[in-house]
């Protein structure tokens, strides 16, 4: 149903409600209005990387892992799969009148905030640190989730608007001070793309203030969203963020004033309880009937667009669509594409004929939790790295020895034991093995959202890039064995792996790879598949290289503004193949747009996926970021000795810079770089490949 028709129906329905009934519908747990045959509806639902918190569903890699795929087409398919499973669940729940939380069709995903600092625990929920990549993947995900049919498949939500990326411990009080340039250049582009290109149905406000204004009651942000971008969907608060107005921010004196402040400044839906005071605000003349009515109409417009009051083309989706073979295979493919090979001295891929005993060691080796990240659903089967290897090598004659080695962060595994109680076992396994797979990292208990990551020292944020001390000791024990070792890292962002880089033959970053992650890891470790993911974030050497966490200026942050040498750069990732660009031509013009036509080839020794990356640098303006910035990507696949000719389109926005007032200025002299990594010195050092350069003036 088109928005115009849906809104007209919503207006007719809302006109039949009393003011009190309209106000009641602005709560996330909207009550039924029996006399109008309006069923109760709970707006709160999550789908960051699969239908979450609602029982069984396909669990895809965490969002940061999806960011590492650099694959727009894949993200669209994942969005479609999530939307299909959502409808399958909704269909059976609707039949029995189950309107509980997490049972609806309005999903508060994706998170398109910028992962500007590796300390942020919720960075794992994002697609990384780059505005362009975040916008492309976010648009693809929303298009897939919402669909392009007569009825909206499910409603997506762009969150958290705006400028939210920690610190978690201060989010209920924090004021993010941001320049107009950083706002337009870094923090807003992904939100704008989701509104203008994908037609995202909802936008969620952040907890924090932005330049003094609460994000959930900001006239400035609402002006950008609705007046400049033309957003027509509904706006909602983060959960209990409006309560912060009078408990943590001093923006309002009490709940009544807070409810009025939020509603009068564009917040249609309250995740929380503060809108329970709306009628009191109305009776005191703090909000008008027209304002309540408009918010209610917006919400019912969404419900009509979802086909909630009639038949839809999705009504016949059976429950068997949940975790169907096609979706599980898609989850496996996503895990495969997300894995980033950071180092390889020839240890990988492993050769079965050279291995009699394989050691699998580490607290994340057989951890289901480490597959998931946060905001996840429940899988009917989880394949850990250890299980994936056991399944993959079953019947091969290779003996697998295992040891947890240590707890994730606690000093011992058994309550009555001494600290380091599994180190001797790990040493024995390493000594007896021909090759060791060491699986370390974090999980959602160590990094995530305030209140969820209960071992995080900053309410979910990290205060160090190092692995916990117990894991560092385990690395030392394994290293002393002197056996070929592969470190498999499972975490939601940058981790200091310099010790491993010096002592181990290979390092694979698996992120939080989803329920099929262990199978994907086994296929990559033994060369059935080539790793082809790219880092969506910079791996820094030390936090000492970064500004203070609370500083929201982009100076010195992310690959675009970082002036020191990173440990591993954004966009970096090795493969088992050797894809080269044999030749390329820059074609097109300023009117019709520019694109690269590239002749690519894989010189072997294995089939592989790869990501062509285009970076751009304006050379005649100080307004440009100091380093070249990503402006186009294309994921490709090539067999050994295969070649192809592909086109990579460059968006017109790439030929702009942002001035200090936040305005985009087009034209000038530019250098374009086409390759499979950044054009920085560290990327060239690690890959041995230098991107091709092209000069252009517009």
Task: Give the overall form.
Answer: globular
CATH topology of the largest domain: Rossmann fold
Across the major sheet, the strand order is: 9-14-13-12-10-11
Radius of gyration: 25 Å
User: Helical proportion?
Assistant: 25-40%
CATH class of the largest domain: Alpha Beta
**Counting H and I runs of at least 4 residues, what is the number of helices?**
21
What integer is the average pLDDT? 97
Mind telling me which CATH architecture of the largest domain this is?
Answer: 3-Layer(aba) Sandwich
CATH-wise, what's the superfamily of the largest domain?
Glycoside hydrolase family 3 C-terminal domain
Strand content bin:
15-25%
Query: What is the number of strand segments?
Result: 23
What brief labels describe this structure?
single chain, 698 residues, alpha/beta, TIM Barrel, Rossmann fold, Immunoglobulin-like, 3 domains, four-stranded antiparallel beta sheet, 21 helices, 23 strands
Could you give a quick summary of the protein structure above?
The protein has 698 residues and is α/β, with parallel strands linked by helices.
Topology:
Elements: H1 3-15, H2 19-24, E1 29-30, E2 41-42, H3 63-69, H4 72-95, H5 131-146, E3 157-161, E4 175-176, H6 180-187, H7 189-196, E5 202-205, E6 209-210, E7 213-214, H8 219-228, E8 234-236, H9 244-247, H10 255-264, H11 278-283, H12 289-305, H13 325-338, E9 340-344, E10 357-361, H14 369-372, H15 385-392, E11 399-403, H16 423-432, E12 435-441, H17 469-481, E13 485-490, H18 498-503, E14 506-509, H19 517-525, H20 558-561, E15 579-589, E16 593-602, E17 608-618, E18 629-638, E19 643-650, E20 656-658, E21 664-666, E22 669-675, H21 681-687, E23 692-697
């Amino acid at each position: 149903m088109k928005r115009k028709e849906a809104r007209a129906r919503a207006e007719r329905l809302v006109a039949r409600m009393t003011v009190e009934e309209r106000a009641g519908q602005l709560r996330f747990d909207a009550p039924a209005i029996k006399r109008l045959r309006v069923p109760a509806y709970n707006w709160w639902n999550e789908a960051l990387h699969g239908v979450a918190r609602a029982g069984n569903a396909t669990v895809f890699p965490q969002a940061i892992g999806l960011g590492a795929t650099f694959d727009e087409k894949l993200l669209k398919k994942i969005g479609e799969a999530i939307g299909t499973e959502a409808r399958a669940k909704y269909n059976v729940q609707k039949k029995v009148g189950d309107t509980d939380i997490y049972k609806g069709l309005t999903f508060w995903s994706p998170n398109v905030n910028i992962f500007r600092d590796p300390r942020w625990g919720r960075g794992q929920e994002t697609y990384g640190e780059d505005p362009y990549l975040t916008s492309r993947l976010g648009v693809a995900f929303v298009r897939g989730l919402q669909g392009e049919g007569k009825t909206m498949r499910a409603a997506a939500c762009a969150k958290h608007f705006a400028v939210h990326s920690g610190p978690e411990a201060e989010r209920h009080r924090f004021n993010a001070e941001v320049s107009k340039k950083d706002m337009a250049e870094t923090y807003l582009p992904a939100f704008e793309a989701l509104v203008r290109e994908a037609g995202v149905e909802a936008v969620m406000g952040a907890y924090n203030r932005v330049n003094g204004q609460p994000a959930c009651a900001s006239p400035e942000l609402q002006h950008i969203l609705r007046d400049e971008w033309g957003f027509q969907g509904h706006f909602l608060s983060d959960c209990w963020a409006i309560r912060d107005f009078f408990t943590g921010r001093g923006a309002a004196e009490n709940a009544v004033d807070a409810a009025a402040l939020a509603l009068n400044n564009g917040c249609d839906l309250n995740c929380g309880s503060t809108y329970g005071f709306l009628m009191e605000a109305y009776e005191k003349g703090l909000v008008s009937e027209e304002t309540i009515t408009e918010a209610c109409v917006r919400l019912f417009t969404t419900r009509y667009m979802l086909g909630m009051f009639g038949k839809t083309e999705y009504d016949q989706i059976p429950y068997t669509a949940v975790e169907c073979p096609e979706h599980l295979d898609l989850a496996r493919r996503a895990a495969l594409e997300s894995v980033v090979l950071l180092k390889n001295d020839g240890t990988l891929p492993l050769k079965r004929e050279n291995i009699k005993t394989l050691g699998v060691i580490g607290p994340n080796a057989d951890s289901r939790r480490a597959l998931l990240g946060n905001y996840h659903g429940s899988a009917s089967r989880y394949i850990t790295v250890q299980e994936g290897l056991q399944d993959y090598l079953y019947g091969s004659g290779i003996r697998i020895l295992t040891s947890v080695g240590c707890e994730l962060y606690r000093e011992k595994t058994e309550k009555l034991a001494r600290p380091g109680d599994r180190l001797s076992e790990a040493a024995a396994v390493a000594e007896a093995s021909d090759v060791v797979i060491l699986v370390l990292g974090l999980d959602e208990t160590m990094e995530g959202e305030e209140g969820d990551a209960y071992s995080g020292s900053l309410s979910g944020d990290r205060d160090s890039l190092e692995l916990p001390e117990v894991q560092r000791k385990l690395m030392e024990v394994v290293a002393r064995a002197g056996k070929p070792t592969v470190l498999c890292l499972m975490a939601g962002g940058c981790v200091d792996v310099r010790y491993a880089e010096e002592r181990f033959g290979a390092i694979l970053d698996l992120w939080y790879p989803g329920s099929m992650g262990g199978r994907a890891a086994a296929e990559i470790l033994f060369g059935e598949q080539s790793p082809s993911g790219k880092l969506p974030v910079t791996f820094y050497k030390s936090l000492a290289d970064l500004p203070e966490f609370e500083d929201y200026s982009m100076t010195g942050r992310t690959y675009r503004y970082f002036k020191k040498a990173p440990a591993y750069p954004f966009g970096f990732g090795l493969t088992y193949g050797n894809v080269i660009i044999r030749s390329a031509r820059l074609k097109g013009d300023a009117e019709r747009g520019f694109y690269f036509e590239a002749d690519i080839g894989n010189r072997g020794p294995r089939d592989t996926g790869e990501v062509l990356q285009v970076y751009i640098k304006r050379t005649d303006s100080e307004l440009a970021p100091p380093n070249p910035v990503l402006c186009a990507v294309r994921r490709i696949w090539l067999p050994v000795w295969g070649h192809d000719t592909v086109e990579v389109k460059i968006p017109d926005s790439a030929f702009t810079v942002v001035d200090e007032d936040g305005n985009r200025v087009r034209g000038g002299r530019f250098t374009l770089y086409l390759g499979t990594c950044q054009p920085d010195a560290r990327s060239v050092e690690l890959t041995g490949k230098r991107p091709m350069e092209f000069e252009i003036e517009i």
